[in-house]
Design a protein that fits this description.
Its main location: periplasm. Belongs to the bacterial solute-binding protein SsuA/TauA family. Keywords: Signal. The protein is built from 15 helices and ten strands. The chain is α/β, with parallel strands linked by helices. Strand 6, helix 7 and strand 7 form a beta-alpha-beta unit.
Length: 344
Amino acid sequence: MISMTRRSFKKAALGSLAALVALSALTVPALAADKITVGALRFTSHAPSFVAFEKGYFTDEGLEVEFKFFQAAQPMAVAIASGDVDFGITAISGGLINLAEKGAIKVIGGALQEEPGIDGQIILVSKAAYDEGVTSPAKLKSRSFGITQAGSSFHYMASKIAEKEGFATADIKLVPLQKVGAIIGALKSGQVDSWSIVPHIAKALLKGGEIMQIGMVADYIPDYQVTTVFTSTEIAETKPDLVKRFLKAFSKGADDFNAALVDNTEGEAGAAAMVELIHKYVYADQPIEKAGPSIKNGAMRINKDAALNLTNVKDQLDWFKAEGLVSNDIAIETLVNTDYVEIF
């Protein structure tokens, strides 16, 4: 009888313990995800972030992501420095370098890069300029070239084109128009003669007959590290785990993007699914039947594991110095934190 009582007590105690454990599991909240804001442009080249978000790669890394969209690179750099944005993916600009000199920003990885055999950024001219004889980049001397701001990637590309063709940057009339959309409008109407831009935009413009192609940027800047991944110096130096988790999710998104639209290893169905995903963010105001071909045909390589072409980044920095757009005293270490990705 005593034995039965002990067994009953033990069984009751174990049952109570199990119930307590179950109740604890229900009442103890899971660890909250780290909330981050990611800066982006509505370009196909920014797709890895969109893919990582849509496929849950950021969530897998314990990150709750909100996007903030920009129309040019320099405002994004300012937003990183002010803390309004945590991570950004865009071109190196004079503004970004100047903020790095002030200790506000660090480049931590690479994204879009020109690669032989893959259509890259295209040099464009208005139909009016083409009819006047501007049929190659060599004819851009004394012609106008649209840029967002002085010290932008467009400024860098125009200068490199001029250098290779044997004339000075000052021989091109640079027209700062602040926004990509404004440059498109000015080029179509003939208010500016020329521009260079990523293929998903360029190829769509070429279909209208108002704009003509005269060259490829890759012929002037081989292996150009077009865009980079960057963050605030504070995050880069004090939150390495956060940076690693962001780069891991971003890199998974890049792998999926490259497989579907650059290497074409996912077949037509995989490519179509990727285009549909990206369309939520790029040309979202157009039907997918119209936007899809531009998104697909404009895909460029995103560096594996966010590896960074430091050789080209150094060239960009040297150009900014030579043009007097940044201080001559800025070292590459001031701009780039090499702790996180492969450097080449």
